UniProtKB/TrEMBL annotation:
It holds the Pfam family FecR. Residues 217-247 form a coiled coil. Keywords: Coiled coil. It comes from Leptospira santarosai str. CBC1416. It comes from the Bacteria. This is Sigma factor regulatory protein, FecR/PupR family. Residues 9-109 form the FecR protein domain.
Length: 325
C-alpha cells in the first residue's frame, strides 16, 4: 500500500493475488491474478491533462475511469489493439493465449487495431507519408465503439500488424481485426470486481505514500510500530468500503436482477447453477444469490424466487457439470 509508480514500471501478480492502483485523476484499475501490466505512460502536461497508457502483457485488468476533461487520455493496449476510454468501467482480458477481449460495463470504449508503425509519430510525420496516411485511415475505419454491455474480440498476437515497414502493411491486414461479440459474456464475478474498486481522497493517498516511504527507510522500533498501526488503519478503512460495495452489489442482484432468459444465461453470468429439490417433490433450477435467515434467494429464468429453507429437501450444487444447457 502506498507505493508510487512511474512510466516504465511493471506490475505482476501471482495466483490468488490482485492489486488496486489509483491514478491522479481519480481513475483506478484492479489487476487480476496471474497478470502483467506495463505502464507505458503516466504523465500530466502543462495544462494539467493526464495521459495514462497501460500495456496488458498477460492476464486481466478491470478499469474504472474518471476523465475530468475530454483532453485526458486513458487507454489499455495489447499487442494488437488499443482500447481508448471515454469515461467508463470496462475489462480487458488476455488470460487466453489466442485472443484478447474488451468488455464494457458502463460508458464507452473505442477499440482499434494497434500498429507499431504508427506509434511515436506526430500527425505531421504521418501526413507527409502516403503509406502512413492510408494505414491511419484504415485504422480509423476499423475502430469499433463499444457501449454498455457490449464486447469485442481480436487475436492476442498478429504478426501482420507488428511490422515497422509501412509498405508491407495492407488495408486487408487491418480490416476486420476487431470484431464485436453478439454476447458480451460479462460474468457476475467480473462485474463485482469492477463494483468493488474504491478510490481514496488526495489526503489519504498522500498518507499512504508517506507511510510507505517512511517505512522503507531506517526507523526505530517505536516509529515502525506507529507507521504499522497507521497502515493497518487505512487498510481497514479501504476494506470496509470494499465490503460495503460488495453488499450493495448483492442487493442489486436481488432488487434489480438481470434478465437471464435461460439456464445457459444463468450459468454464463453466475458461472454455476444449482438444482433445488423441494420436499413436495418439485424442483427449481437457478443460482443461489443469497441466504437471509431461513430464506434462500434464487435467480431463475423467471426472475428472483424466495424459498423457505424448511421446504428444501436437497440442493445439487454445480449442476452445470451434471446437465447440459
Amino acid at each position: 500500500m502506498g507505493a508510487s509508480l512511474k512510466t516504465g514500471d511493471k506490475v505482476s501478480t501471482k495466483d490468488k493475488s490482485k492489486v488496486d492502483i489509483q491514478f491522479t485523476d481519480g481513475s483506478a484499475v484492479r489487476i487480476s491474478e496471474n497478470s502483467v501490466i506495463e505502464f507505458d505512460a503516466l504523465t500530466i502536461n502543462s495544462k494539467g491533462n493526464s495521459d495514462t497508457r497501460l500495456a496488458l502483457v498477460s492476464g486481466k485488468v478491470f478499469a474504472k475511469v474518471n476523465k475530468a476533461s475530454k483532453e485526458d487520455q486513458f487507454s489499455v493496449v495489447t499487442p494488437t489493439a488499443i482500447a481508448g476510454v471515454r469515461g467508463t468501467s470496462f475489462i480487458v482480458d488476455r488470460s487466453k493465449t489466442d485472443k484478447a477481449v474488451v468488455k464494457v460495463l458502463d460508458g464507452a470504449v473505442a477499440v482499434a487495431p494497434r500498429l507499431v508503425v504508427l506509434e511515436g509519430l506526430s500527425e505531421d510525420e504521418i501526413a507527409k507519408n502516403e503509406n502512413l496516411k492510408k494505414i491511419q485511415q484504415s485504422v480509423a475505419s476499423s475502430e469499433i465503439v463499444l457501449e454498455k454491455n457490449q464486447a469485442s474480440v481480436l487475436k492476442a498476437d498478429d504478426k501482420s500488424l507488428d511490422v515497422k515497414d509501412s509498405s508491407k502493411i495492407s488495408e486487408k491486414n487491418i480490416a476486420g481485426v476487431v470484431k464485436k461479440l453478439d454476447n458480451p459474456g460479462i460474468s457476475k464475478k467480473e462485474e463485482e470486481e469492477i463494483r468493488t474498486i474504491v478510490t481514496v481522497d488526495k489526503e489519504t493517498t498522500e498518507k499512504m505514500v508517506r507511510i510507505n516511504e517512511e517505512s522503507s527507510g531506517k526507523v526505530d522500533e517505536q516509529k515502525a510500530a506507529s507507521l504499522e498501526a497507521e497502515r493497518k488503519k487505512l487498510e481497514s478503512e479501504v476494506k470496509i468500503r470494499q465490503e460495503e460495495e460488495a453488499k450493495k452489489f448483492k442487493q442489486i442482484l436481488i432488487s434489480a436482477p438481470k434478465e437471464l432468459k435461460s439456464s445457459k444465461d444463468i450459468v454464463n453470468y453466475y458461472e454455476r447453477i444449482e438444482k433445488i429439490i423441494m420436499t413436495d417433490g418439485s424442483s427449481m433450477i437457478g443460482a443461489i444469490v443469497d441466504q437471509q435467515g431461513s430464506t434462500m434467494i434464487v435467480h431463475t429464468e423467471q426472475g428472483i424466487k424466495k424459498i423457505n429453507q424448511a421446504d428444501v429437501q436437497e440442493v445439487i450444487y454445480d449442476f452445470q457439470t451434471k446437465a447440459k444447457f
